[in-house]
Amino acid sequence: MPAFTQEEILAGLAELVTEETGLPAADVQPGKSFVDDLDIDSLSMMTIVVNAQDKFNVEIPDEAVTELKTVSDAVAYITKAQSDAAAVGQA
Amino acid sequence: MASLTASKGAEHARILSVAAHRPERVVMNDELVEAIDSSDTWIRERSGIISRRFAAPDETVIDLSAPAALQAIERAGLTPADIDTILVATITHELQTPSAASILAHRIDADRAVTMDLNTACAGFAYGISLASDMIRGGSARNVLVVGAETMSKIIDPTDRGTAFIFGDGAGAAVIGPSSTPAIGPTIWGSDAGQWEAIRSNSSWSDFRDGAAWPTLRMAGPKVFRWAIWEMSPVAQKAVDAAGIEIGDLAAFIPHQANMRIIDQMAKQLRLPEHVAIARDIAESGNTSAASIPMAMARMLDEGQVASGGLALLIGFGAGLSYAAQVVELP
C-alpha cells in the first residue's frame, strides 16, 4: 500500500475531525492544538484516532494519543508510523 | 460401580419480569460541578448525563434491591417463596461477608434460596442472566431472582474529574424462569484482563487500615471509551449472530449505560435501524454499574418505549475488563 503524503494525511485528518465534530476542515491547521484551539475533548480524540488508524493503516496505541497535542503532532506521528510499518514490510 | 444421576432442567428459560427502584435524592449536575471545576454544559456534552440519584447515607444496596425484587416477583405472578435462587450483581455491598444476596433473601422472606453475589461490575447483570438461564436449563434452579444494585456514590471521589459526575445509585431486578420456547439467546462473554487496571479501586482495605484514604473508583476514561466502542461493538454483533437473528429483528438495544457517547457510537457501529429503540436512562440515572441494564429495561417497558415480547440486545462491559452480551425476549 503506497504511503500517504503529509498533505494527504493533513487533509484526511481534517476530514475525520469534521466528521466527528462538525468543525470546518479549513480550521484543521498544523499549529492548532486539539484541546485549546479546536475544543476537541479526549473522547472525540479517541474516535478521530481510531478512524485515523483505519484510514492510514497504522497503529496508534492509547498511550500515544495523550502525546498528540497539536494537528502537526498527529501528522508527524502518522507519517512516522507509516514509514516504520513499511520498514518491517507491513505497508 | 454405582452411576450418578445427572440433573435435568427446563427446555428453555425466559425473563418473566423486570422492575427498578431509584433512591429518592435527585442530584443535578450543578451540585457536583464546583468540586471538579466544571459545568453542567461540560457534563452533558461529555456524558449525556443531566441528573442522577444518590442513596441516603445509611441506605445500602440491600435497601435498594428489596423494593425492586419484590415488585419483579409480583409482576412475575409469583411470591418470594417461589424464588429458589438469588444472584445479586454488585460492587458496592459493604460487608465482606455474608453476601448481599443472603441478606436480601432474609429481607424478602426467601430464606431458603441459593444465594450468591456476582462481582463483575457493569457486566454483572448480563452475567447473572447467563448463569440463571443455564441453571434453569441445567436443572439446578427454577425461579431465579437476578438483581443489579449499586451505591456508587459511596466509592467515588467527588473531586476526581474522571468519575465524580458519571456514577449514580439504584437497583434493577428480574425474575428468570422456565419457558417452553427459547427466550434468552447464547451469551457472548469474556474478559480483557490485561487491561484490569483501567477501572479499579485505588487502594485495598489493608492500605486503608494503614492510613490510605477511603478507597475510591478510578477509571482511565479515554482508554475504556475506546475499548467499549471498538472492542465491544463486535461482541454485540456476535450475540445477535449467535441468537440466529438479524440486527433489524431487534425491538430494543439496551447497552450498559456507561456514557451517552458510547451508546451513540455503538449504535452507529452496529448500524442499528431507526426502528430499534435505544435505552438512554443514563440521562437521569447516571452510570449505575451493575444496575444500569435492568433499570434501563424497566424504564423502557414502563414508559412504553418498547413492547413486551420484543427482542432486546443487552451488553454489559466494564471493570475486569469484563463483558457479556445476549439477546433476550423482553418480559
CATH-derived architecture of chain A: Orthogonal Bundle
Q: What name is given to the CATH topology of chain A?
A: Non-ribosomal Peptide Synthetase Peptidyl Carrier Protein, Chain A
CATH hierarchy, class of chain A: Mainly Alpha
Helix content of chain B: 25-40%
Give the name of the CATH superfamily of the largest domain in chain B. Answer: Thiolase/Chalcone synthase
Total beta-strand segments of chain A: 0
Major sheet of chain A: size, sense and barrel closure?
none
Question: What's the CATH H-level superfamily name of chain A?
Answer: ACP-like
Portion of residues within helices of chain A? 55-70%
Report on this model:
The complex is a heterodimer of chains A (91) and B (331). By secondary structure, chain A is mainly alpha-helical. Chain A has four helices and no strands. Chain A is globular and about 35 Å long. Chain B is of the alpha/beta class and 331 residues long. Chain B has ten helices and 14 strands. In chain B, strands 1-7-6-4-5 form a five-stranded mixed β-sheet, sandwiched between helices. In chain B, strand 13 (311-318) and strand 14 form a beta hairpin. Chain B starts with 11 loop residues before the first strand and ends with a strand. The mean pLDDT of chain B is 98. The chains are: A mainly alpha (91), B alpha/beta (331). The A-B interface holds A 41-43, 45-47, 50, 62, 65-66 and B 45-46, 220-223, 225-226, 229-230, 259, 261, 265.
Could you give the topology of this structure?
The complex is a heterodimer of chains A (91) and B (331).
Chain A: H1 6-21, H2 42-56, H3 62-65, H4 71-87
Chain B: E1 12-21, E2 25-28, H1 30-33, H2 40-47, E3 51-54, H3 61-75, E4 85-89, H4 100-107, E5 114-118, H5 124-138, E6 144-151, E7 169-179, E8 188-191, E9 199-201, H6 205-209, E10 217-219, H7 221-242, E11 252-255, H8 260-269, E12 277-278, H9 282-285, H10 292-302, E13 311-318, E14 322-329
Parallel strand pairs in B: 4-5, 4-6, 11-12, 11-13
Antiparallel strand pairs in B: 1-7, 2-3, 6-7, 8-14, 9-10, 13-14
Helix pairs in contact in B: 3-4, 7-8
